[in-house]
């Protein structure tokens, strides 16, 4: 299993999941096909797949496959890609969309079977066992149809992104309140914007993830 959980900077993505898959002696190199899910942003954007994260993946050289959870064919699309990317936005809107579409179970199954998972901010939080610790940072009202706040359960750790307080919506006081309120019930990992959590066969570790200059 391979998880690349980002706060903001994407340097670790390029290091651990390069945009080009190198072929054998009998095959040519090809761009890595990465399925892009933007459900966490759909309530903010006028149209799907127009966010800066999508543009960044294209700029990096990935073959980006848009996956709209509100339409059919999600399973076929997921089965056609080399990795999944779940964008930032609102964690509760994301989990609501994953549950409604049944993509939560599908994604967890495929990732445990070896499909790499990349999550940024909300996408990183959703990979954990529960998204309740995001309640002070995001809007639980966007997940009113959720029976509970279970995450994808791909890791036992709940990532708390933007923990260095550099983004105006997430000052250090808010991060401290989150850690104090939920730290007794969940295993929380404060993740700075220039860090990433890598989970693979070698275990779990925090690595540098500054934004590359291309």
From TrEMBL:
GO biological process, one term: proteolysis
Record's keyword annotation contains Protease: yes
UniProt KW keywords: Hydrolase, Protease, Serine protease
Keyword Protease attributed: yes
Example of a GO MF term: serine-type peptidase activity
Pfam families: Peptidase_S51
Domain of life the protein comes from: Bacteria
PANTHER family: ALPHA-ASPARTYL DIPEPTIDASE, PROTEASE S51 ALPHA-ASPARTYL DIPEPTIDASE
Similarity annotation: Belongs to the peptidase S51 family.
Record protein name field: Putative peptidase E
């Amino acid at each position: 299993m391979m998880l690349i959980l980002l706060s903001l900077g994407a340097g670790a993505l390029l290091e651990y999941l390069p945009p080009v898959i190198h072929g054998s002696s009998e095959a040519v190199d090809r761009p890595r096909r990465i399925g892009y899910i933007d459900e966490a942003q759909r309530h903010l954007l006028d149209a799907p797949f127009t966010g800066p994260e999508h543009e960044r993946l294209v700029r990096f050289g990935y073959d980006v496959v848009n996956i709209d959870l509100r339409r059919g064919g999600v399973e076929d699309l997921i089965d056609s890609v080399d990795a999944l990317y779940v964008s930032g936005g609102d964690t509760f809107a994301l989990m609501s969309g994953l549950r409604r579409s049944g993509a939560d179970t599908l994604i967890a199954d495929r990732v445990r079977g070896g499909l790499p998972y990349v999550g940024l901010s909300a996408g990183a939080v959703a990979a954990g066992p529960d998204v309740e610790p995001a309640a002070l940072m995001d809007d639980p009202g966007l997940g009113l149809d959720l029976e509970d706040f279970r995450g994808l359960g791909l890791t036992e750790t709940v990532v708390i992104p933007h923990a260095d307080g550099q983004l105006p919506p997430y000052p250090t006081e808010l991060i401290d309140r989150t850690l104090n309120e939920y730290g007794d019930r969940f295993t929380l990992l404060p993740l700075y914007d220039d860090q990433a959590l890598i989970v693979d066969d070698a275990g779990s570790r925090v690595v540098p993830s500054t934004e590359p200059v291309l």
